[in-house]
Write a structure and sequence with these properties.
GO terms for molecular function: ATP binding; hydrolase activity; JUN kinase kinase activity; protein serine/threonine kinase activity; protein tyrosine kinase activity. This protein has about 475 residues and is α+β, with helices and mostly antiparallel strands. It folds into two domains: about 180 residues, Purple Acid Phosphatase, chain A, domain 2 (4-Layer Sandwich); about 180 residues, Phosphorylase Kinase, domain 1 (2-Layer Sandwich). Strands 11-12-13-15-14 form a five-stranded antiparallel beta sheet, with helices on one face. A three-stranded parallel beta sheet has the order 1-4-5, with helices on one face. The longest helix has 22 residues.
């Protein structure tokens, strides 16, 4: 891009406002603190920043959960919604609203269809008419539409709760279809409790949702139109990335997946088609509590490859504005389901361990040409390489004091995982213990970690066999 070139368009993104006029609390799983009243201050700050941008955003993507479900029992849903809508009214750009589970905790689908949260009037209709019949003839239509902010670009809003038991009443065909499917996979009395603590079956919960066949057929028509017109497509909804190369980061540990009625995850051809429409993205880089940066791939200078695996490569890079050197894990968009699970588990652990000095730190992530780039703290070497250097190159031994420090740091990292995250590592080996020139020792590679249930670890044949305990 030329130095003085102007962008074709810009847009803002905000999600999970979850406003309620109540004291601070925690989420359903008691793992994250919620600041309910302060969320309005954050919305106002975002609005002020958007309005002050030299290039005004063309639109805002509001990704759902605009007010919290706690409003419903207090009968404050409409008042809370009015408060948040007033915050959005200060913004010069129009907002496109996605619907999440908290919208349906507070309101019925009929109410939402007739509310200010229905932004379907912003849909682009002049360029594309061929698939309108798909949803218009549906007695239970989804809340989905598309728009084009500039030539060769299209945004699609999907209804992630099209199949769900929240928001639709009992006479609904989709309600009964969703309830039947949930009960087939979740035998718990409380359907908000996952049937299993880890793995793909976590998706089968009441607060989740999915895409109907009708909506996916409609999406297929939109993508066909985009293909024929060489458009780049961005998909938005109250849903985390189904594939690592989707165009709507960030990836989070709470990722929810589609209620796929085929029973085979990630095989829907309509969803797979989105891979061809991945676009560049920017991200947030948090190097320290005081250092926060908006960044793109152009802000990173590649200093060379330092490792390679089945998922892709690890490169040493420097963030040019801050001069921070880091390790960037470049994950291919074609990773299979097993690799994806391990990558998400690894990312989940490091993102939730920012307060532990014995675990490698996560800085941020972005998308580049369909691949996901994960920026991590760069260490100098691993324990296995350090061992070989001391014994082979120096013909020496590692002092007991150093071995003690390595052992202590490793145990403290494992204790943090167990006590704070209810996780066991399951792949402790020298190559997963990292050291730097300042004497810091940190644990890494949590891809096959296991979740603790009632303080008991689920055991299975997992880990690197040469380092596994011998079982008679």
């Amino acid at each position: 891009m030329e130095e003085n070139a102007q962008p074709l368009f810009t847009f803002g993104v905000i999600a999970d406002i979850q406003y309620a006029d109540i004291e601070d609390g925690f989420n359903f799983l008691q793992t994250r603190k919620r600041y309910y009243r302060n969320s309005i201050s954050l919305l106002n700050s975002a609005t002020e920043k958007w309005n002050a941008e030299p290039v005004q955003p063309s639109f805002i993507l509001q990704l759902g959960d605009i007010i919290d479900g706690f409003n419903k029992p207090r009968k404050t849903s409409e008042k809370a919604l009015e408060t948040v809508v007033n915050g959005f009214s200060k913004c010069k750009a129009k907002a496109h609203h996605a619907w999440g589970n908290h919208e349906f905790y507070n309101f019925s689908r009929t109410y939402l269809m007739n509310s200010v949260l229905n932004s379907k009037h912003l849909e682009s209709t002049s360029e594309f008419q061929s698939s309108k019949h798909v949803e218009e003839n549906n007695p239970e239509p989804s809340y989905s539409y598309h728009f084009s902010p500039a030539p060769n670009f299209r945004f699609v809003l999907l209804d992630a709760y099209d199949l769900s038991i929240i928001g639709r009443g009992e006479p609904s065909r989709k309600y009964y279809q969703s309830l039947k499917y949930l009960r087939e996979h979740n035998k718990n009395k409380n359907l908000n409790v996952p049937p299993e603590p880890t793995g793909m079956k976590q998706q089968f919960v009441e607060f989740n949702g999915g895409f109907s066949r009708e909506q996916l057929d409609w999406l297929n028509d939109v993508l066909t139109f985009a293909d024929n017109n060489q458009e780049k497509v961005t998909v938005m909804c109250k849903r985390k990335a189904l594939k690592l190369n989707f165009a709507n980061p960030p990836i989070k540990s709470t990722a929810r997946f589609t209620l796929n009625t085929s029973g085979v995850p990630f095989q829907n051809p309509h969803i797979e088609r989105l891979r061809t429409h991945s676009i560049e993205s920017s991200g947030k880089l948090k190097i320290s509590p005081e250092q926060h940066w908006d960044f793109t791939a152009e802000d990173l200078k590649d200093l060379g490859e330092i490792g390679r695996g089945a998922y892709g490569s690890v490169n040493k890079m420097v963030h040019k504005p801050s001069e921070q050197i880091m390790a960037v894990k470049r994950i291919r968009s074609t990773v299979d389901e097993k690799e994806q699970k391990q990558l998400l588990m690894d990312l989940d652990v490091v993102m939730r361990s920012s307060d532990c000095p014995y675990i490698v730190q996560f800085y941020g992530a972005l998308f580049r040409e369909g691949d996901c780039w994960i920026c991590m703290e760069l260490m100098s070497t691993s324990f296995d390489k350090f061992y070989k250097y001391v014994y082979c190159a120096l013909d020496d031994v590692i002092p007991e004091e150093i071995l003690g420090k390595i052992t202590l740091a490793t145990v403290k990292a494992l204790n943090h995982l167990k006590e704070n995250l209810k996780i066991i590592h399951r792949d402790i080996k020298p190559s997963n213990i990292l050291l730097d020139r300042n004497g810091n020792i940190k644990l890494c590679d949590f891809g096959i970690s296991g979740q603790l249930v009632d303080s008991i670890a689920k055991t299975r044949d997992a880990g690197c066999r040469p380092y596994m305990a011998v079982i008679d």
